[in-house]
Amino acid sequence: MRRKGLTTVLVLTASLLVLIAMAPAAYPAGKEGGPVLEFDVEKHDFGKVLFPSEHSFVFSFVNKGDAPLEIEQLRLTCSCFEGHVGYELKKRTYQPGERGELKIMLSVKAAKRFKGAYRVYSNALNSPSTISAFAKGMELYELDESEFDFGHVRIRTEEVRTINLRHVKGKPIEIAEATASGLESLPVTYQVKIVPDEKDNSASTLEVKLKADEYFEKVPKAFIRIVPKGEPEHAMSIPLRIEVSRPVQFSSVPGRFLGVAPPGSRHVLELKLTNNDQRKVLLKEVTSSNEAFDVSWGPVRDGYEYAASLTVTVPKEMEEGFLFARITAVTDHPSQPIESTCFSVHVVKP
Questions:
Q1: 339 is in which domain, residue-wise?
Q2: Cβ of 35: how many Cβ atoms within 10 Å?
Q3: pLDDT at site 20
Q4: What order do you get walking across the sheet with 159-167 strand by strand?
Q5: Do 293 and 327 touch, CB atoms closer than 8 A?
Q6: pLDDT at 82
Q7: Residue 5 lies in a domain
Q8: Fewest C-beta in 10 Å: which of 15, 79, 196, 226?
Q9: Which of 187, 215, 244 is the last residue before a domain boundary?
């Protein structure tokens, strides 16, 4: 019985020794070990940095093995930003216990979050190693809005939009130049102005006044460009979006599809023909492409809006289907004499 227990203990001990021998060692020691590359830190975050700007960080490392370390190659594995990553390594061979430095240089060229990573290949037992650097590029000024959004503007009506600026370093805001680009070919009048904050010299308001002198459809890309005094490399271009409302258009229309109606039914819909221009527009004629849609116009309101009633009479003999009509208004406006829209009714027998 005792002999059997002893045999069991010996078997278990032998099995344990086999498992230990099979387990991989992180850093094998002894004369037959090898070099081990170990960085003090493997990641560095530069945080928020102005762009364009240059930055560098030194990754310190040590050869913790028992054989000379040979750094063979550095490969850039991730450069997820608009800029440049470089490195500086004074030598490539390091004796056991010897320390070294790997300097990473970053050139930040955009207001974006980025990551730059190098994979270090060597004869180390733990090769390859990876080091990473992070940064968030930012503009010299923080804006409370990302663009000047004028939306739809009426002709010959001045609109004003503002964006508040703040210096990210808390320094006084000094603008050498504030101009608009992309508006030169358009029939618009505009003014760009910097309004300083009387209580905080690190804050200002960028104000844009704009007026469309005539109607135009296509709007090219437009920007407001500001150049800080003495720092032209920190110039900013802020998008400007504008659409000009059609001089004459149907408004207060609940929908072009007027719903379902049975044969012989009659429906009345209130319409408005609005003049978005500052000049008076004479309504000459209103026509319908389908006699079932009759338009009756009332007097002009305030010189700039015509009220109307659209009466739809579904023929009694009509089979199921759709009834369509295009309503067209003819005016004396020089750039948009005709305005039209379509209506439809789904005819269904009860």
A1: 248-347
A2: 24
A3: 42
A4: 141-143, 159-167, 203-212, 188-196
A5: yes
A6: 52
A7: no
A8: 15
A9: 244
